[in-house]
Design a protein that fits this description.
By secondary structure, this protein is of the alpha+beta class. The protein contains 4 helices and 7 strands.
């Protein structure tokens, strides 16, 4: 495992969507994130789903949902704490101090993840606040950035294929609905 190179405070972050791609994460955090990649990790008791429409990306985007029989693979990062606000901003985290509720797009959640044979407790991740009742297809750009992150950071081949098939099937269903609507 990589160790911090300075006395800078850091935090663990589990990415399962577009943030798995260090190049895309760099785009919003403003610095190279490759040095902060620990490696592929597993989140047990959750499954992926596209239960949110992103106005920015114009498509369905990933979320994790509790499911005791499933496991989500993703990327474990060890990020400098100074990047936390930019990460929260990227995920549109908003919190009402008076009502003590999250009302943005995502909310932070602490999870336990496995990296190799080690369990990491209280790792930061994000989950959708207001989930849709059905999944929405990703667009081609989001599809490719998620797969690029998954393969670049070494997720299992089996999981990469599962991710590919899930996204491909959602896109295929969307195309079929368009064809039926035209007919």
């Amino acid at each position: 495992m990589k160790k911090p190179t300075s006395g800078e405070k850091k935090f663990y972050y589990f990415a399962y969507g577009s943030c798995m791609c260090p190049v895309d994460l760099k785009r919003t955090l403003g610095e190279n994130t490759h040095p902060y990649v620990i490696g592929p990790a597993k989140l047990k008791g959750y499954k992926i789903g596209f239960y949110r429409y992103s106005e920015v990306r114009k498509c369905g985007v990933l979320d994790v949902v509790k499911d005791e029989s499933s496991t989500v693979e993703g990327v474990l990062y060890y990020l400098p704490l100074r990047l936390r606000d930019r990460l929260d901003e990227r995920e549109d985290v908003r919190f009402d101090l008076v009502k003590q509720i999250h009302y943005g797009t995502y909310r932070p959640e602490k999870v336990d993840v496995f990296y190799q044979d080690q369990l990491f407790f209280d790792v930061n991740t994000y989950v959708v606040v207001d989930k849709l009742s059905h999944e929405l297809a990703p667009n081609d750009w989001y599809f490719h950035v998620v797969l690029r992150g998954a393969t670049t950071c070494g997720l299992s081949e089996e999981y990469c294929w599962k991710l590919f098939e899930h996204m491909h099937n959602l896109q295929h269903q969307k195309k079929q609905k368009k064809v039926l609507a035209i007919a």
